[in-house]
Amino acid sequence: MESFGAAFPDLYMNPILTAWCVSTLSIAASFGSYANGAVCDKTGRRESVKHNVLIFLIGSSLQTGATSSKYLFAGRAVAGYALGCLTHVIPMYIAEISTANIRGFLISLLQLALTVGFVVGYWIADATSYIGGTRCAPGVPYTGPLLTGSPTFNPYHDVPVGGCTGQTQASWRVPLGLQLFPALCLGIGMFFMPDSPGWLVESNREGEAAQTLSRLRRKPADDHSVRFELLEIMAEVRYTREVTKAIIPNAGPYRLFIHKLVSFGSRKMTKRLFVGCLPMSFQQNMSLVHLLIINVTHFSLEAIIYYAPLVFSQMNLSDNTTSLLVGLFGLVNIFATLPGAILVDRMGRRPLLLSGAAGCFICMVVMGTIVTVYGPHWPSNGVMVQAIIASLFLFNIFFSYSWNSIGLVIPSEIFPLHYRSIGLSFTTPSIWISNFMATLSLPGFVEKSGGLAYYMTAVTCLLGFLAVKFLFPETKGYALEDMDTAFGSKVTDSEREHKERIYRDLGLPVKAPPTV
């Protein structure tokens, strides 16, 4: 937007500085998602959400009211930190308050809500860009660098004294300010939500945990199923405490935290870290074609604003057709994400991920072949343009119902309660780190590499397929306390006897592996 360039000419005229401004959010978010692991173990899941909503509101306000690029950078850093914390804690909170039969559906709904938000944000930004017109000063000729033979807008010379006379600053301040309202709704809503029953038990607040479970399950606190679920959580907490106490007796909070970190080096936890990071990492890497072509990615959908019109315009399409395709692409992403949310607890995680990776692989091979065979002349071939568009939309469908829907589900459910927050603080940053690296390095690479970028994405899809096929356990139907069974963790005789003793002490039957 030219009015944005008039307000921030240093950003508008410096692509490298612009890339760093965009990437600031990802850098801060990766730090926030890592730091929040220890914090929300102390404050609780609900309080963590409330605190970080407040931080996000501060960051968004800084961006909305920014008068120089330094305030814009600061706002993106503050908001990014809060977003990192929220992407860490919200999926975990949903997993801990839901039952096994709807856990995947509820976490997938979070991704669906994010997708809807990004698409609506695109349309709002597109609509507000016409406030006051599309030019800063319609009567002032352009003096900027030539693009396709014509000069472009130069904010250092093409802005009249007193500022823009056409497009107003509302064209970009309004969409930035509107993001305050969903955050406010989330923050206010959390005042009416209970805290995680698991966290309450870990905090020695079993009575509150019982009342919370009663409220969540809509059954009396003395109902057998509510009591049974509470005792299962208590058994897991008690077992972890007794094992930890046997290893490091009389340890203070600092030593206990260090022990928790060191525990992730064990074979049992290393596999879970690997499985937890893979969906997020593969999700981001498989969606590089989105980031660079139409950019409908997990947490990068907002970048569709930057890249989609450019790519579709390379197909010799009109501006109206380009805008229509970009908007339609976002709508397809929404409607294709919904089946994944519905099927994740019925078909399971593995079938959706496998079919999605296979479909994405085929689409990328087709696109890479077209670009390689026809070279830079493919946009002038009507049939090839149609094939590219069809492949993009098919890729969108395969990606949306599988990796886009399930990327947050698996990491949120595979770690034991005592280690869950720290475990997610290791897996969640992979989203933002991948985002950061792609934002800075890949646009130029795709422009110069031709079909190679598509083939690289195809290889990533293939690796994702193989990883799920041979490494991922099926977690559908397992309670959070049963993930050891899902992963086939080996239990020694002493560990089994220890767990059985705790179960007997609490009046629980010794558990058999659940049927799924």
From TrEMBL:
Record carries keyword Transmembrane helix: yes
Describe its membrane topology. Multi-pass membrane protein
A Pfam family matched in the record: Sugar_tr
> May I have one GO cellular component term?
membrane
Instruction: Give the catalysed reaction(s), semicolon-separated.
Output: myo-inositol(out) + H(+)(out) = myo-inositol(in) + H(+)(in)
In terms of InterPro entries, this protein maps to: MFS_dom (IPR020846), MFS_sugar_transport-like (IPR005828), MFS_Sugar_Transporters (IPR050360), MFS_trans_sf (IPR036259), Sugar/inositol_transpt (IPR003663), Sugar_transporter_CS (IPR005829)
Q: Recall the GO molecular function terms of this protein's record.
A: carbohydrate:proton symporter activity
> Where is this gene product found?
Membrane
Segments traversing the membrane: 12-32, 78-95, 102-125, 288-312, 324-344, 351-375, 387-410, 422-446, 452-472
Segments forming domain Major facilitator superfamily (MFS) profile: 1-476
Q: Which SUPFAM superfamilies match?
A: MFS general substrate transporter (SSF103473)
Report keywords, A-Z: Membrane, Transmembrane, Transmembrane helix, Transport
Top-level lineage group? Eukaryota
Q: Matching PANTHER family, A to Z?
A: PLASTIDIC GLUCOSE TRANSPORTER 4, SUGAR TRANSPORTER, PUTATIVE (AFU_ORTHOLOGUE AFUA_3G06730)-RELATED
**Family the entry assigns:** Belongs to the major facilitator superfamily. Sugar transporter (TC 2.A.1.1) family.
Would you tell me the protein name for this molecule?
Major facilitator superfamily (MFS) profile domain-containing protein
